[in-house]
Please model this.
Amino acid sequence: APHFHYEGSQLYAEGVALSELAKALGTPLYVYSRAALKTAWQHYAQATEGHHALVCFGMKANSNLAVLKEFARLGSGFDIVSGGELARVLAVGADPAKIVFSGVGKQVCEMQAALEAGVKCFNVESLPELDRLSEVATAMGKIAAVSLRVNPDVDAKTHPYISTGLKENKFGIAIEEAVTAYMHAASLPGISVVGVDCHIGSQITEVGPYLDALDKLLKLIAQLDQAGIKLHHLDLGGGLGIRYDDETPLAPKVLLDQVFAELKAKGFDYLQLVLEPGRSLVGNAGVLLTTVEYLKLTESRNFAIIDAGMNDLIRPALYEAWHGVLPLVARNTATTRYDVVGPVCESADWLAKERDLALEQGDVIAIESAGAYSFVMAGNYNSRTRPAEVMVDGDKYYVIRQRETFADLIRGESCLP
Ligand code: LLP
Model:
């Protein structure tokens, strides 16, 4: 990523040497680049320019207040999935009219809070959720704007890379049952039907599955139109992939040019296009800095034991995800093949495997692509404090979340009398 680059042997985030940050703030440390967030946003802004569209940051990917505030300033909407996420976006002054509320398990209190705030729309995933939402809204004297999340069942055989998206049975309403579900929604007193949405998977690098899904949704919209149900927006979800290793990411413009062309060709350009990108807005805007505590050379493998673990960044342990590893100060000595592992008492506690690195004890390394689904998935296993988060802006930096303390770890706990 261009916002993280070497000057000489030193790795920088924008104008700040990362080794300086590690020294000043300690490790493990999440570092984000403000310029990288802005650049990622601009790719969407340019791709939607001149069209009726709304980009709602899938904030589950990174929900730090400073990150949310940046996107709010840039004009972003937000895709939320909980009352907690709603509280966060409201805390940065986001416009509720640009918030869509996704998720299969919305609780009554979450519906109430979202109705109170006046969100743009609820992305509803089941019939019982529709019934509950109508009741909650009616009791409050309100009408809930609703989009149904449809599972378009994009062919797994043609697009095996999103096959996990297909098995997600808990998500969405099967497309064959969608018309019936819409008729039911339209009959409910507390519901106003406004849209349709889908989210076909994540880390997608091809246009094909999106166009397949779009095609199915447009057929559904036409069917609904004939039944007298008029939709105002079409939400294609998130899912655009980023470069972790050697992937060729799908540029928003490449996808959206084709989507808008299709909408126009089929006479659906009256629809507002909504998107819910998460990873592609933040994934490569962050790195995780971590110190090499020990180099442990064994007969079968060499381990670089670092001070970050699976509790700080769980993606490798959970998905066998690949993240790049960069030294903060490049050495030109010979490399050794290491497994980069954490201090947690689990064999799954690794961040990178079989990497050729020139390391010495005490070196600091950067784990790349740690802006999405990284800090947000961190936990306190092994009673480890969660890392601090820092935002670099040009040659300045700001601590946007303090490192947790031991006092934080036991806050709220008590012993029996
Ligand atoms: N909309 C909905 C309804 C979603 O479920 C998601 C992500 C998004 C939008 C944003 O998708 P994105 O643009 O980030 O692909 N923890 C996993 C990723 C889980 C994605 C969950 N849903 C990981 O670390 O790869």
User: Anything to note?
Assistant: The radius of gyration is 23 Å. DSSP finds 13 helices and 21 strands in the chain. The mean pLDDT is 96. The CA atoms of residues 6 and 12 lie 6 Å apart.
